[in-house]
């Protein structure tokens, strides 16, 4: 064993910084970053988290009554998506996993679109808002290399834009996660990789996912900075992502951020988390959740009161209900649609299949 | 006598082989305390312990790759891939390693492993959870591809797959995981690999299918029977190696054949069967071989999925057309 305390015998050393501004009870732990100095500036973040939570509740209710497909709740993880998306510029590109509805909403994806997607309708991925944002990535971690590619495109065109890629703790166990990070760092592209470390990958807890002390340190092997933030502190998430974006835009390459949060409910509506984790664990984690944390802070600053809260809840509920109604009233697509977007022009070989499919339903495309 | 679902039969076969042979291990995402997202490994960890029932991190490459290493060392790993949509990295391990270790070492190192994965549509699952890509595997030399179509066949075929000395891909039609119950006794009797299963005898036309589409195929045979058309129904069951003789013999008798599969049309496994008939049974054919399949389209999400799935009515129509051909 070489003596560890002799710096000349250390080939490499690293540390992983951790950022949190708001303590669990919403009190200020560290001096807030500039964007958070005015509490009123944080209200849009609060609103976005609340909206996501109400959407989430509605989505689950629709699923339970057979009007939506399997749905992955983001309960308790709203600060990750809101923090990240609120740090982005509209011209950046988001590459989300399946659990980042809050980021999608901030980016301008509509609730109706998200309902459509999880309701089993491809039109939900044809966003009217952020035209360049990627659809959600269901195959875990498969979108990390895409983010490197998107970011490389920005770099090649000399644009001051960045790609933001979000994945789960489980995603960091996959080759494509690391391969994406590696190339992003080697080619120094403007990408930000954000891990929603919600402590669980379905039934597998974070400690069984990796023997590494943090997920953020996986950045070190790829040759980029890695840091941890309290993922239930939206100020910390936004701050870290904003710093990483600044780094990316100024040509200094990618960053990996691990946001520590917790999945407060089942993996999806198809899961039953009681099989593998205790209620006690979950109720402990409720104390750390991001929405009440920011609310407590805002209230402590006299920037929010009971009436504001009531008003916000009713406005959000109304918006969610309206979107759900629009979703439910959406006419189904005709069968021809399953053919019409495969290629720019339908090849002759497929034309016959398309005609057959239409004829099969008696020529009534809306059968 | 115990009635079991297909997924229960899978669990039973896993437990049976684990009991028989301590070299059998189960690896996969959420196969431990969760018992697998479809409950196929439910209870195994309690019975056989966490050394033999191992939750992996999220990594399909690991599930397959670690199985290659274990198998080379004499273990009998059974890897579960949660959905076929995530199996594609596994193909690298199967094609480049598992399927050729025996050949490239001239028998010195072998690879007795099984990869199980649910596949197929019709359950309104999210994106990437409904494809039928079995043909991809049938193109790999040195690999067995097995697809059961009932609880009893699932039990017997999985026993055979795990006991087999070579790598097997065992694809489970999840649409019928729980929709059919059948008597399945834990007899330990395997069903022979490389053998088609004759499910219904008939003189007029041979209907060939596998997996969940067997349901529609048998329904179609019932309907056809009321019209006086007696269909013979063959469940391919072991796509690779293919028991072509059973199909050829049947068509020698009936002179007509339709192949039914959920997978897309082009290069679906139906093409292989049609080609075998063209090559070895042409003079017996009274009509062109018909294929009733999914379309050559990206698997639609649930709202349009029903347009994609072949129906019994389509099978009946194809059979009638075949009967009318002269
Ligand atoms: C490649 C791949 N394998 C398996 C699955 C099935 N699956 C869906 S989510 C999930 C766990 C993902 O965990 P994590 O990355 O932590 O994200 P979380 O669900 O916690 O947001 C698994 C295994 C998948 N979608 N993709
Ligand atoms: Mg997770």
Describe the 3D structure:
The complex is a heterodimer of chains A (367) and B (326). Chain A is an alpha/beta fold and 367 residues long. Chain A is built from 14 helices and 8 strands. Chain A has 2 domains: 18-328, Rossmann fold, CATH 3.40.50.970; 334-367, no CATH class. Chain A has helices at 43-64, 78-87, 101-107, 111-118, 144-156, 175-186, 206-209, 218-222, 234-249, 279-286, 290-300, 306-328, 337-340, 348-360, and strands at residues 18-19, 93-95, 163-168, 191-197, 200-201, 204-205, 226-230, 255-260. In chain A, β3, α6 (175-186) and β4 (191-197) form a beta-alpha-beta unit. The longest helix of chain A is centred in the last third of the chain and has 23 residues, at 306-328. Chain A is globular. Chain A starts with 17 loop residues before the first strand and ends in a 7-residue tail after the last helix. Chain B is an alpha/beta fold and 326 residues long. In chain B, 38% of the residues lie in helices and 19% in strands. Chain B has 12 helices and 14 strands. Chain B has a 7-stranded mixed beta sheet, with helices on both faces. Chain B has a 5-stranded mixed beta sheet with strand order 9-11-10-13-14, with helices on both faces. A two-stranded antiparallel ribbon of chain B has the order 1-8. In chain B, β13 (257-264), α10 and β14 (290-294) form a beta-alpha-beta unit. In chain B, α8 crosses α12 (312-324). The N and C termini of chain B lie far apart (48 Å). Chain A binds chain B through residues 69-70, 98, 117-122, 138-141, 170-171, 173-175, 201-204, 208-210, 270-271, 275-276, 332-333, 335, 337-339, 342, 349-350, 353-354, 357, 360-361, and chain B through 29-30, 32-35, 37, 55, 57-59, 61-62, 85-86, 89, 124-129, 265-266, 295-298, 300-305, 307-308, 314.
The tally of domains of chain B stands at 2
Strand order of the largest sheet of chain B: 3-2-4-5-7-6-12
Radius of gyration of chain A over all CA atoms, rounded: 22 Å
Mean pLDDT across all residues of chain A, rounded?
96
Ligand set: thiamine diphosphate, magnesium ion
Helical residue percent of chain B? 25-40%
N-to-C span of chain A? 74 Å
CATH T-level topology of the largest domain in chain B: Rossmann fold
Question: What value does the Rg of chain B take, in angstroms?
Answer: 19 Å
CATH hierarchy: architecture of the largest domain in chain B = 3-Layer(aba) Sandwich
Backbone shape of chain B: globular
Fourth-level CATH superfamily of the largest domain in chain B:
Thiamin diphosphate (ThDP)-binding fold, Pyr/PP domains
User: How confident is the prediction overall: mean pLDDT of chain B?
Assistant: 98
């Amino acid at each position: 064993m070489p003596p560890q305390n002799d710096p000349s015998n250390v080939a490499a050393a690293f540390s992983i910084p951790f950022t949190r501004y708001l303590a669990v009870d919403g009190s200020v732990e560290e001096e807030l970053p500039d964007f958070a100095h005015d509490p009123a500036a944080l209200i849009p973040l609060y609103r976005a988290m609340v909206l996501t939570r109400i959407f989430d509740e509605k989505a689950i209710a629709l699923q339970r009554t057979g009007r939506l497909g399997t749905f992955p709740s983001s309960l308790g993880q709203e600060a990750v998506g809101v923090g990240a998306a609120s740090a982005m510029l509209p011209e950046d590109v988001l590459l989300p996993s399946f659990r980042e509805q809050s980021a999608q909403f901030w980016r301008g994806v509509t609730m109706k679109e998200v309902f459509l997607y999880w309701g089993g309708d491809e039109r939900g991925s044809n966003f009217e808002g952020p035209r360049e944002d990627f659809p959600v990535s269901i195959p875990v971690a498969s979108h990390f290399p895409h983010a490197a590619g998107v970011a490389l495109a920005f770099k090649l065109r000399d644009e001051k834009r960045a790609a933001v890629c979000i994945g789960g703790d489980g995603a960091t166990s996959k080759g494509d996660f690391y391969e994406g990070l590696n190339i992003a760092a080697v080619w120094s592209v403007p990408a930000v990789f954000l891990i929603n470390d919600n402590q669980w990958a379905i039934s597998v807890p974070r400690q069984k996912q990796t023997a590494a002390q943090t997920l953020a340190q996986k950045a070190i092997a790829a040759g980029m900075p890695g840091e941890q933030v309290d993922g239930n502190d939206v100020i910390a998430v936004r701050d870290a992502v904003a710093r990483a974006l600044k780094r990316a835009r100024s040509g200094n390459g990618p960053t990996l951020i691990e946001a520590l949060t917790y999945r407060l409910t089942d993996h999806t509506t198809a899961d039953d988390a009681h099989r593998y984790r205790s209620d006690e664990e979950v109720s402990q984690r409720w104390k750390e959740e991001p929405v009440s944390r920011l609310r407590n802070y805002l209230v402590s600053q006299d920037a929010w009161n009971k009436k504001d809260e009531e008003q916000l809840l009713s406005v959000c509920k109304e918006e969610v209900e309206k979107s759900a109604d629009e979703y439910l009233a959406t006419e189904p697509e005709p069968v021809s649609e399953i053919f019409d977007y495969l290629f720019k022009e339908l090849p002759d070989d497929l034309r016959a299949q398309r005609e057959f499919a239409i004829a099969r339903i008696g020529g009534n495309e809306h059968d | 006598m115990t009635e079991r679902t297909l997924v229960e039969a899978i669990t039973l076969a896993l437990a049976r082989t684990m009991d028989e042979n301590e070299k059998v291990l189960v690896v996969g995402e959420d196969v431990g305390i969760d018992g697998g997202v479809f409950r196929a490994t439910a209870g195994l960890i309690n019975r056989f312990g966490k050394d033999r029932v191992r939750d992996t991190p999220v990594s399909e490459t690991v599930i397959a790759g670690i199985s290659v290493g274990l198998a080379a060392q004499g273990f009998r790993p059974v890897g579960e891939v949660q959905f076929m949509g995530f199996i594609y990295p596994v193909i690298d391990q199967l094609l480049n390693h598992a399927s050729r270790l025996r050949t490239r070492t001239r028998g010195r190192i072998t690879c007795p492993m099984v990869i199980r994965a649910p596949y197929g549509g019709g359950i309104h699952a999210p994106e990437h959870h409904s494809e039928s890509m079995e043909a991809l595997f049938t193109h790999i030399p040195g690999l067995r591809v097995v697809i059961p179509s009932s609880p009893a066949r699932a039990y017997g075929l999985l026993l055979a797959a795990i006991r087999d000395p070579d790598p097997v891909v065992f694809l489970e039609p999840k649409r019928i995981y729980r929709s059919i119950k059948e008597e399945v006794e834990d007899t330990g009797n395997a069903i022979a690999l490389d053998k088609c299963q004759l499910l219904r005898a008939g003189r007029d036309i041979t209907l060939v299918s596998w997996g969940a589409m067997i349901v529609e195929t048998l329904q179609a045979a019932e309907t056809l029977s009321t019209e006086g058309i007696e269909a013979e129904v063959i469940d391919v069951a072991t796509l690779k190696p293919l028991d072509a003789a059973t199909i050829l013999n049947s068509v020698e008798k009936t002179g007509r054949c339709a192949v039914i599969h959920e997978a897309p049309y082009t290069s679906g496994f139906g093409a292989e069967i049609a080609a075998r008939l063209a090559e070895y049974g042409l003079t017996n054919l009274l009509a062109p071989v018909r294929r009733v399949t999914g379309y050559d389209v990206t698997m639609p999400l649930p709202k349009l999925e029903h347009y994609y799935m072949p129906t019994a009515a389509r099978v009946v129509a194809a059979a009638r057309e075949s009967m009318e051909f002269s």
